[in-house]
């Protein structure tokens, strides 16, 4: 192909942006009203009332920088339809409102496009310009990021601003890969103050920056050289983070509202699992509990009347108790999460493997928190899938893990779009993304052998069966009335297996390279 | 990447873009009493399902022809019947006689949009894929690029999935016909094209080249011997296909005559609405419609149409090669569009299919009326971007390419698309002066008309200057 270096990137980016515009009139979730309400809150009320306002159930529960972001958007919103900024206009969704909100997501995705470009620069190899465009790692990564299925349906159909936020995360990762650690830290600090869910990966940043940035050298076997500690660097890092947090939380600390803000950011009353169980360890735990309870009733070991009535599968988000296995409290989940990520953190502390080791540790922190966290949303799987794309175009083993995790993770997002109109969209897009990722990654790593173990292929084919059952067979069957939660249960449990397996495999790659001498 | 996975991705992208456009409004949405083409299709389902065949094309108390009477050939009617049969199973309210008039609901919209997608998946898309794989020269990358461009061509997407029509069926069948002829399966290709003709009479725009190509081929093979048998086979195939389609109407000559009267409405006048052809554009300067009697108008359009299409078709008769066939298809469809009687702007799709980067702006007024501005803007921009990138990225080593590239360079990317864009944008953003309320639609159609005129002249010159010397049967796209 005669196309020069990067001419394909603007076409990909413009193409996906135009593509997003086609779905402006598609299904919107309640998140649409949430963000509209936040536009109204930030536009009409003084800052001191932002975290106290609760006339609507959709209270502000993101950190202050995001509230300022909404404030900025509200000034543009005025030119589209001033009525959307009225506080008590519940569920207001006039065509200009929908257009504005959708366009705001598409435009702020510009940050993500920028970040994708930076990441593609990091994976460019020397021989790249000689290959055809379709076989270059940078092209494949660009498509895997820009046309990511999960990000597309969560942002542009379900409605959220994840592209904007992931842009900061990926840009920060790219900066670290390019050895510009202060910029990376700054971007991450901003990200944390935009959406606090990224606290999941903060330990990775903390340990990596402390170990690899504040200690300027390592000894020959990779261990710490305590004398190389640079106070200057630590202070620079600290001041950057403090400055951003100060800018964000400062006004609220001054007004004495910090406890109120924190209670909004960390609502622990919500229950172990979301209405639809995210495919993590607790989904398997819940399923086991249900199975044991049913078995117990059948074998007359338990009385049915004694079992707690609030069924997890009833679809309500409330606190509930398990029937057979011990109940799980927030502190238990915190301990489990910390235990799951500690080995990874210890590994990169003892033997840092440069920025790619950091990336691997970040992935493990994200996955560990996903597996054992409290009230995890299934959308959080994207925090693992997107950065893993970078590793996938560089190593064969990571490509295999990526294929399994991304297919499973993306499929687990299917219940988010449950309307019949959106069915062709999600099926076609999922097939497109999967086809591309499988073919492109297979061709890229063809010299190193096959990407997937036969058992993994069987698992993925089984995923297809689950999809067929949930989307086609079940709605047409007589069980639809009696057991309405069955497809969700099946999806959740089946995907948990895949996600847990990917988590363990990623851990294996990190710990295995720990025992070898320093890689890069 | 393997070709089959690239092709699958292109097809999936084509399907998703179509479905995305279908989420928007349709023709006549929420506009009683007449609504639009969407209601027309629904009404045909109602009529064909509830009434016996002999009443489908006749005016009666049960079938008011003034309210979207059937005016397509029988195959459309059978298709409507099939859709109605399924609709009745899902929700009988959708096709109840008289009571379902003007019925609009999200579920019904989903059903109707699904019917369009299903026939596209069965007929149009496979034909396009096979056409690109087998009748397109060049590397596999080039074939995939052409496939992507044809699948993402905004015209057919916006009309079928936005405005609401079933052009995918007739164009798909016509494409199967072209495919058959290109691969040497003349009888099968003829059957496919006959089916296309029996679905929409507009396919007559393509009929002359089919006829001349096949006849020329028979002559060349020698009328005594092989050529004669070929002629007989093709003729038999066509006659049998027509007979099968018209079977219920052949029992009574009045039936057949009424159908013909419905599908060729000669009482309607030289043109309707603003369409980018000669008569409408000429009407700006000289008011033809009022100056001439309707009979005179009919003869005028007949004469000019024949003048426009005969040269190209006769040339095809003398040189029946596939290359000539494709060019004659373009010239014939453009000629009919520009000079024929009662042309609708959607008919331009017939020409557009074969010359892929084709100006769309002539359909803008129609799409604006349907509330389809955003899909139009998105698909046109995307298509323009894609075709510019893909065409510049591909090899320019074949002479054939050069000729089309010259056409594109002369007419499109500096001039036509800019002009089209400017006209589109002004017609959307500005209000016309009060004494010229139709200024923008007229400007749009006149500009488009000039572009089409330039196109037909170019392709006629191309056909008469002969194919590139190196290879005699080359694709021109």
TrEMBL record, chain A:
Chain segments annotated as transmembrane: 6-27, 139-161, 181-210, 231-254, 328-349, 361-393, 425-445, 457-476, 483-504
Pathway(s) where this gene product acts: Protein modification; protein glycosylation
A Pfam short name: Alg6_Alg8
InterPro entries noted in UniProt: Glyco_trans_ALG6/ALG8
Compartments, as annotated in UniProt: Endoplasmic reticulum membrane
Cellular component GO terms held in the UniProt record: endoplasmic reticulum membrane
A GO biological process held by the record: dolichol-linked oligosaccharide biosynthetic process
Keywords on record: Endoplasmic reticulum, Glycosyltransferase, Membrane, Transferase, Transmembrane, Transmembrane helix
UniProt entry tagged with the keyword Hydrolase: no
Topology in membrane: Multi-pass membrane protein
EC number: 2.4.1.-
UniProt-recorded Gene Ontology molecular function terms: dolichyl pyrophosphate Glc1Man9GlcNAc2 alpha-1,3-glucosyltransferase activity
Domain of life: Eukaryota
UniProt record similarity statement: Belongs to the ALG6/ALG8 glucosyltransferase family.
Protein name: Alpha-1,3-glucosyltransferase
Annotated source species: Oryzias latipes
Automatic annotation (TrEMBL), chain B:
Signal peptide annotation: 1-22
GO molecular function term, any single one: dolichyl pyrophosphate Man9GlcNAc2 alpha-1,3-glucosyltransferase activity
InterPro entries per record: Glyco_trans_ALG6/ALG8
Catalytic function, reaction form: an alpha-D-Man-(1->2)-alpha-D-Man-(1->2)-alpha-D-Man-(1->3)-[alpha-D-Man-(1->2)-alpha-D-Man-(1->3)-[alpha-D-Man-(1->2)-alpha-D-Man-(1->6)]-alpha-D-Man-(1->6)]-beta-D-Man-(1->4)-beta-D-GlcNAc-(1->4)-alpha-D-GlcNAc-diphospho-di-trans,poly-cis-dolichol + a di-trans,poly-cis-dolichyl beta-D-glucosyl phosphate = an alpha-D-Glc-(1->3)-alpha-D-Man-(1->2)-alpha-D-Man-(1->2)-alpha-D-Man-(1->3)-[alpha-D-Man-(1->2)-alpha-D-Man-(1->3)-[alpha-D-Man-(1->2)-alpha-D-Man-(1->6)]-alpha-D-Man-(1->6)]-beta-D-Man-(1->4)-beta-D-GlcNAc-(1->4)-alpha-D-GlcNAc-diphospho-di-trans,poly-cis-dolichol + a di-trans,poly-cis-dolichyl phosphate + H(+)
EC number(s) per entry: 2.4.1.-
Compartment list: Endoplasmic reticulum membrane
Entry keywords, A to Z: Endoplasmic reticulum, Glycosyltransferase, Membrane, Signal, Transferase, Transmembrane, Transmembrane helix
Superkingdom of this protein's organism: Eukaryota
Parts of the chain that traverse the membrane: 110-134, 146-164, 176-197, 204-224, 230-251, 298-317, 323-341, 348-367, 373-391, 411-430, 442-462
Membrane topology field: Multi-pass membrane protein
GO CC, one annotated term: endoplasmic reticulum membrane
Reported function: Dolichyl pyrophosphate Man9GlcNAc2 alpha-1,3-glucosyltransferase that operates in the biosynthetic pathway of dolichol-linked oligosaccharides, the glycan precursors employed in protein asparagine (N)-glycosylation. The assembly of dolichol-linked oligosaccharides begins on the cytosolic side of the endoplasmic reticulum membrane and finishes in its lumen. The sequential addition of sugars to dolichol pyrophosphate produces dolichol-linked oligosaccharides containing fourteen sugars, including two GlcNAcs, nine mannoses and three glucoses.
Family listed: Belongs to the ALG6/ALG8 glucosyltransferase family.
Name assigned to this protein: Alpha-1,3-glucosyltransferase
Source organism (scientific name): Oryzias latipes (Japanese rice fish)
Lineage: Eukaryota, Metazoa, Chordata, Craniata, Vertebrata
């Amino acid at each position: 192909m005669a196309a020069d270096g990067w001419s394909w990137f603007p076409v990909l980016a413009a193409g996906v942006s135009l593509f997003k515009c086609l779905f402006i009139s598609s299904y919107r979730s309640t998140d649409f009203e949430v963000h509209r309400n936040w536009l109204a809150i930030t536009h009409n009320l003084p800052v001191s009332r932002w975290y106290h306002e609760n006339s609507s159930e959709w209270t502000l529960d993101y950190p202050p920088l995001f509230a300022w972001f909404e404030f900025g958007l509200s000034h543009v919103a005025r030119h589209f339809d001033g009525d959307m900024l009225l506080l008590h206009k519940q569920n207001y969704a006039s065509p200009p409102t929908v257009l504005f909100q959708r366009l705001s997501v598409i435009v702020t995705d510009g940050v993500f496009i920028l970040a994708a470009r930076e990441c593609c620069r990091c994976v460019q190899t020397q021989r790249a310009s000689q290959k055809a465009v379709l076989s270059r790692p940078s092209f494949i990564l660009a498509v895997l990021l820009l046309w990511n299925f999960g990000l597309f349906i969560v942002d542009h159909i379900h409605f959220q601003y994840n592209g904007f936020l992931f842009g900061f995360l990926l840009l920060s990762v790219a900066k670290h890969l390019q050895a510009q650690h202060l910029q990376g830290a700054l971007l991450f600090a901003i990200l944390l103050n935009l959406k606090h869910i990224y606290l999941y990966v903060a330990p990775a940043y903390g340990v990596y920056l402390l170990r690899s940035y504040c200690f300027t050298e390592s000894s020959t076997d990779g261990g710490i050289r305590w004398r190389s500690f640079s106070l200057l660097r630590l202070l620079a890092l600290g001041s950057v983070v403090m400055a951003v947090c100060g800018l964000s939380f400062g006004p609220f600390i001054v007004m004495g509202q910090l406890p109120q803000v924190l209670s909004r950011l960390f609502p622990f009353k919500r229950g172990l699992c979301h209405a639809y169980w995210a495919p993590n360890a607790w989904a398997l735990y819940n399923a086991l509990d249900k199975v044991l309870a049913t078995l117990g009733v059948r074998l007359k070991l338990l009385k049915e009347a004694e079992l707690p009535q609030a069924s997890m599968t009833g679809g309500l988000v409330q606190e509930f108790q398990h029937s057979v296995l011990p109940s799980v409290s927030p502190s238990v989940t915190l301990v489990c999460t910390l235990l799951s990520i500690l080995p990874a953190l210890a590994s990169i502390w003892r033997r840092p493997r440069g920025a790619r080791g950091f990336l691997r540790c970040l992935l493990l922190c994200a996955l560990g928190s996903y597996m054992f966290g409290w009230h995890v949303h299934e959308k959080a799987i994207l925090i693992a899938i997107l950065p893993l794309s970078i590793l996938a175009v560089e190593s064969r083993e990571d490509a295999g893990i990526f294929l399994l995790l991304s297919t499973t993770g993306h499929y687990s997002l299917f219940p988010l779009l449950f309307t019949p109109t959106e069915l062709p969209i999600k099926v076609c897009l999922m097939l497109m993304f999967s086809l591309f990722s499988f073919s492109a990654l297979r061709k890229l790593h063809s010299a190193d052998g096959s990407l997937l173990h036969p058992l993994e292929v069987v698992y993925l084919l089984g995923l297809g069966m689950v999809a067929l059952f949930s989307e086609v067979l079940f709605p047409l069957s007589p069980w639809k009335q009696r057991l309405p939660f069955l497809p969700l249960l099946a999806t959740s449990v089946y995907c948990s297996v895949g996600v847990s397996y990917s988590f363990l495999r990623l851990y294996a790659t990190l710990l295995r390279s720990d025992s070898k001498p320093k890689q890069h | 990447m393997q070709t089959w996975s690239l092709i699958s991705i292109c097809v999936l992208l084509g399907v998703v873009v179509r479905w995305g456009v279908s989420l928007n409004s349709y023709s006549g949405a929420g506009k009683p009493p007449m609504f639009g083409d969407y209601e027309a299709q629904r009404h045909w389902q109602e009529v064909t399902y509830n009434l016996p065949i002999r009443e489908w094309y006749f005016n009666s108390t049960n079938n008011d022809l003034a309210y979207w009477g059937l005016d397509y050939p029988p195959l459309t009617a059978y298709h409507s019947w099939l859709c109605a049969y399924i609709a009745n199973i899902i929700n009988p309210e959708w096709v109840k006689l008289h009571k379902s008039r003007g019925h609009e609901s999200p579920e019904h919209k989903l059903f109707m949009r699904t019917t369009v997608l299903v026939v596209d998946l069965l007929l149009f898309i496979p034909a396009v894929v096979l056409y690109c794989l087998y009748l397109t020269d060049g590397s596999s990358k080039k074939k995939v690029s052409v496939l992507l461009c044809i699948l993402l061509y905004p015209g057919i997407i916006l009309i079928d999935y936005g405005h609401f029509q079933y052009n995918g069926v007739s164009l798909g069948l016509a494409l199967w016909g072209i495919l058959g002829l290109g691969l040497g399966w003349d009888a099968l290709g003829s059957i496919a094209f006959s089916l296309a003709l029996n679905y929409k009479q507009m396919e007559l725009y393509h009929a002359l080249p089919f006829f001349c190509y096949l006849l020329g081929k028979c002559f060349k093979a020698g009328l005594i011997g092989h050529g004669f048998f070929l002629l007989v086979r093709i003729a038999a195939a066509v006659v049998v296909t027509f007979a099968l389609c018209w079977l219920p109407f052949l029992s009574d000559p009045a039936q057949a005559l009424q159908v013909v009267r419905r599908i060729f409405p000669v009482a309607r006048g030289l043109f309707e609405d603003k369409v980018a052809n000669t008569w409408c554009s000429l009407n700006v300067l000289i008011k033809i419609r009022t100056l001439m009697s309707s009979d005179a108008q009919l003869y005028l359009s007949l004469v000019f149409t024949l003048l426009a299409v005969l040269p190209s078709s006769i040339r095809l008769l003398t040189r029946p090669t596939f290359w000539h066939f494709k060019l004659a298809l373009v010239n014939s469809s453009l000629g009919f569009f520009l000079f024929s009687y009662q042309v609708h702007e959607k008919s331009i799709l017939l020409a557009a299919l074969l010359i892929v980067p084709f100006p769309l702006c002539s359909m803008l007024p129609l799409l604006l009326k349907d509330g389809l501005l955003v899909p139009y803007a998105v698909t046109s921009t995307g298509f323009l971007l894609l075709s510019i990138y893909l065409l510049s990225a591909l090899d320019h080593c074949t002479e054939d390419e050069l000729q089309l590239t010259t056409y594109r360079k002369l007419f499109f990317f500096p001039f036509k698309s800019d002009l089209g864009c400017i006209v589109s944008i002004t017609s959307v953003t500005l209000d016309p002066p009060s004494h010229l309320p139709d200024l923008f639609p007229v400007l749009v159609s006149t500009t488009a008309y000039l572009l089409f005129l330039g196109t037909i002249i170019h392709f006629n010159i191309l056909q008469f200057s002969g194919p590139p010397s190196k290879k005699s049967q080359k694709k021109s796209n």
